[in-house]
Amino acid sequence: MTSRMQDGSAGDVDYAAVGGGYGRHRRPDPRIGALIHEALGAARTVLNVGAGAGSYEDGPWEVTPVEPSAAMRAQRPAHLAPAVDAVAERLPFPDASFDAAMTTFSVHQWPDPAAGLRELRRVTRGPVAVLTCDPDRVRDFWLHRYCPDVLDTEARRYPALGDLAAALGGTVTTAPVPIPLDCTDGFNEAYYGRPERLLDPAARQACSAWSFVDPPAVDRFTAALRRDLADGTWDARHGHLRHQPYLEGSLVLLRALPD
Fold first, then answer.
1. Average pLDDT over residues 4-26
2. Over the stretch 41-58, which tens digit does the pLDDT of each residue have?
3. Cα–Cα distance for residue pair 141/94, rounded to 1 Å
């Protein structure tokens, strides 16, 4: 779906229906945030596109958030700047307006990611940071055994890293982002060592890929995971993850500098 949703969003998810729990379950993780801060360097003004409820905006910057979903804009805390209602592909700012720009867990939802990233580059003088997932690695997660539909959906939605780099232009570096065991940002892999969390419908709803999964497939997932947790099968296969401090999964951070 590429048309604007009923709450005004322009991506492939209706956040009026599924976005209510983002403020609770998608809290920025400080260790991931530190890597984003490092990527933005000494920027004073920062554009955040697909800003949602404001994750990763706290920092020593003047942030201009852009968010097309009314439901997500309504969840922004009062201490953060109100978000501009606009889309990545048509940013309402002059060239070179910002020292830096970022987008986190958003680019895969844009109708035209390449056009959106070219817009970020147009309005940004310095680094552009993109927190995303490598579609070639999302199926490596144990969740694929239990609900292949959700990770197949993610693999289809996330743009190839090479395509993102080409759209950004300039000098692009890509670095894996270690996911901490107690990660507070509730995307799927954040629960790599806490499988019980994915039995919570609210936690699943805060990861947009689940909105593409048919209810019968979700029911099969919950039944299978509950069974394997109860009889020890999950722990026999993956129990070491409960004590693994970090997972190097599909999460990556791209940093693009202009030529």
1. 55
2. 999 999 999 999 899 998
3. 41
Distance, in Å, from the CA atom of 150 to the CA atom of 88, rounded to the nearest integer, reads 25
Q: How far apart are CA 184 and CA 52, in angstroms?
A: 16
CB atoms near residue 247 (< 10 Å): 18
Q: How far is CA 250 from CA 1, 91, 115, 196, 256, in A?
A: 24, 28, 23, 21, 19
Cβ-count burial 122-146 (b if 16+ within 10 Å, e if not): ebbebbbbbbbbbbebbeebebbbb
Q: Which two tokens mark 105?
A: 């867990």
Count the neighbouring beta carbons within 10 Å of the beta carbon of residue 155. 19
* Look-up of token digits 């693009």: 256
Instruction: Write out the two tokens for 86.
Output: 């606009």
| Partner residues linked to 172 by β-bridges | 256
Q: What angle do CA 33, 208, 178 make, to 5 degrees?
A: 30
Q: Tell me which DSSP letter residue 51 carries.
A: -
